[in-house]
Amino acid sequence: MAKLAKRTKKEPSENHEFLQTEPKEIETLSLAQKKYLNVIKNNILTFATGCAGTGKSYIALSYAAEQLKAKRISKIIITRPLVEAGEKVGYLPGLLQEKVSPYFDPMIDILNKRLGQSYTDYLIKRNIIEAKPLAYLRGSTFENAMVILDESQNTTPAQMMMFLTRIGENCKMIVDGDLAQSDIRGESGLHDALSRLKNVNNVGHIHFTIDDVVRSGICKDILIAY
Q: pLDDT, tens digit, for every residue of 182-202?
């Protein structure tokens, strides 16, 4: 009997077309999400605040994936302050990427759905998609990029100023957070930035309420209970 040929894992081709999932048109699930998408399109810096489960990260990352696919940008950068929500996990072994992976996995999952996991993995290896803790962005300049700061309620005013002043040419920033879920002591950098930048050109703000929750009915009920 002839031996079966050993299968080898197919390596990405140079054009990587077979790995890519064509991003579908972004489907907004609420009027607030539709307004949010328009705010992103019409501003350089967008603040999205309010309840969990309203699609703040999903819309931001879906738009970033669309822009990258259309070659309007050359990079997606996602960042957040590494602040734990009420419990300490202690020392995490491994390289930096292994240490920070749990913080960024939910955002990478959205990109996997929009671009396909294999293609997303390839873009991460090529540093076209970067996930970095906020503290590692000092000294950077963001150009030809979409930059998304998640959980921004956990920044200090100094951290927020450092982040916002990294913006360069052909760059959009999206800053999301929920001021009701701050895990730091002292004033939130998100609150401080909203008050300082409310009259600055090319800066937009959308606020989501419990009525805008799209995650699930029970998620909305739990938020109301709390």
A: 888 889 999 999 999 999 999
Residue 87 phi/psi, 5° resolution? -135, 150
**Domain at 156, CATH number:** 3.40.50.300
Return the SS3 of 81: coil
H-assigned helices in the chain = 31-42, 56-69, 96-115, 117-125, 157-164, 189-197, 217-225
Minimal CA–CA distance to 46: which of 208, 204, 206?
Answer: 204
Domain encompassing residue 197: 49-82+96-225
Look at residue 11 and tell me whether its pLDDT is greater than 90: no
Closest CA to 51 of 191, 181, 195: 181
Query: Rounded to the nearest 10 degrees, how much is the dihedral formed by the CA atoms of 11, 16, 18, 23?
Result: 140
Quote the mean pLDDT of the chain.
84
Count Cβ atoms below 10 Å from residue 51 Cβ, excluding itself: 20
Which residue is it, tokens 């799209």? 214
| Structural domain contains residue 15 | no
Q: Does any domain span residue 14?
A: no
Tell me what pLDDT residue 76 has. 97
Q: Are 83 and 151 in contact (CB under 8 A)?
A: yes
pLDDT over 50 at 176, yes or no:
yes
Model-level pTM greater than 0.85?
A: no
Q: Pairing relation of β-strands 75-80 and 129-133? A: parallel
Number of folded domains that form the chain: 1
